[in-house]
Amino acid sequence: MWFSSDNAGPVAPEVMAALAAANAGYAASYGADPLMARVTAKIREAFEAPEAAVYLVSTGTTANALSLAMLCPPWATVFCHRNAHIEEDECAAPEFYTGGAKLTLLDGKDAKIAPESLARALSFTGRGGVHNVQKGALSLTNATENGAIYTPAEVAELAGMAHAEGVPVHMDGARFANALVRLGCTPAELTWKAGVDILSFGGTKNGLMGVEAVVMFDPKKAWEFELRRKRGGHLFSKHRYLSAQMDAYLTDGLWLRLAASANAAADRLAEGLRARQARLLHPVQANAIFTAFPRASHKRAQQAGAHYYFWPFNQSLEGPDDEMLSCRMVCNWSTTAEDVDALLAAL
């Protein structure tokens, strides 16, 4: 009963097979392998972006931080939600890789930026000329840290506001596949057609061993990204092992099937929690569930071997049994109906 994180899930067997196949013999290094050429072609086709520059890195933090470094100079700020991953969980990596750019934290329900919050920040930033931090970039997380999803129209509204002020747009898509299959739109509709300039295209949380793609829809700064990736220590020499994962991920719609499986498990869990009068704290739109139920149920679940995080973390199993405690439960591609039902039975 592992619901702590989709990072805790296994690697998809198709991906393991691709890694084994890539391990046979020799291949060119540093991204010059034939598999990387296939990855680039597949991403360009999936996103209807024939000129896009595509690069692979090993972690989501790297993808986000290097992407933002491309968009935001040291004297500017990145506009993001106050619960964004780049704010809460990346140990100031964006600030480090941008050379010291600031993060301006915005508000909005379910970790989605409210348009009025962005409007206020855009009008306030840089008002004093050289004395102030300047407008740098906008970063959107889809799906958000609270499991909610931006629609293409919502992305377009925020991106339009940013572009009107000369601010480029980054999307943290660690769970992009989960958002996409829920919405039923195309990758292009959720990204560049809605105004996204650079996408961190996630794979690690959705069945890969450890690889993310940076998709630059405008390739003009591709060489700069290559230099930043090398200088930052994130250019893999045995790059084919990154390429093999992403190539398998993009073959025959595997990435979409894995995400759909995780979303379906989350739906089943949410339905069961509702039937047990648990409180759902955010919409269940991707593969994460934020819920609250009595301490006694938490005790039963954890004694039965369930793994999940209290959310926020500073809660304890010590105290009155009827006190409501909140938690986060995350399903992954391998979560089965039996896993979900076992957790519900334990509760």
Characterise this structure.
- Residues 3-291 form the Aromatic amino acid beta-eliminating lyase/threonine aldolase domain.
- One of its GO terms (molecular function) is L-allo-threonine aldolase activity.
- The chain is α/β, with parallel strands linked by helices and 347 residues long.
- It folds into two domains: 13-254, Aspartate Aminotransferase, domain 2 (3-Layer(aba) Sandwich), CATH 3.40.640; 256-346, Alpha-Beta Complex (Aspartate Aminotransferase, domain 1), CATH 3.90.1150.10.
- The chain has 14 helices and eleven strands.
- Helix 3 (60-71) packs across helix 10, helix 12 runs parallel beside helix 14 and helix 13 (295-303) packs across helix 14.
